[in-house]
């Protein structure tokens, strides 16, 4: 789904889009390209990454903080300020404060971004599979380093359970299927 298709689906450049799917599936790459294309079309868009909040020990319960620090201010037409997690030697700690300028469109990218508890606020929920679990694991290891392999294997187990219980995929439009009228 390209920027023009997203805007056509939304009926304009306003709302909240989730880009969800398993780790290593290509969500970040897709979201970055989508945001770049939307900005090239003159849309004020903010990209919010769940990786700025999630940790191995706390994969999803940080969500209310992301909403209060980032999404709610942006929805109200204000700048958002937050401290993303920065990983050093495999340990997360708060980084320097980031400012996201007010935006008419918000793209939330990452595992759990299309979660059931937030679905009623989403204008569009997209799903990216990105290959088999083995392919996704190898891409994630290439991204995060071999020392992260065991954590990434555990993460894949967690996200399989999360997606099954949450029913995430069923609420999303598969990006690959958009051209077929999904």
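-> sequence recovered:
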């Amino acid at each position: 789904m390209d920027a023009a298709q997203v805007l056509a689906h939304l009926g304009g450049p306003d709302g909240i889009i989730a880009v969800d799917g398993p780790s290593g599936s290509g969500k970040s790459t897709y979201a970055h390209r989508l945001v770049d294309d939307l900005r090239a079309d003159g849309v004020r868009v903010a990209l919010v990454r769940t990786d700025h909040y999630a940790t191995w020990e706390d994969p999803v319960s940080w969500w209310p903080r992301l909403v209060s620090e980032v999404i709610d201010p942006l929805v109200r037409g204000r700048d958002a300020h937050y401290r993303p997690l920065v990983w050093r030697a495999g340990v997360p700690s708060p980084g320097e404060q980031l400012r996201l300028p007010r935006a008419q469109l918000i793209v939330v990218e990452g595992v759990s971004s299309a979660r059931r508890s937030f679905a009623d606020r989403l204008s569009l929920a997209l799903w990216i599979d990105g290959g088999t679990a083995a392919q996704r694991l190898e891409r994630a290891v290439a991204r995060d380093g071999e020392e992260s392999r065991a954590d990434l294997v555990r993460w894949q187990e967690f996200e399989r359970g999360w997606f099954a219980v949450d029913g995430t995929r069923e609420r999303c439009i598969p990006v690959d299927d958009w051209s077929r009228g999904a």
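The radius of gyration is 16 Å.
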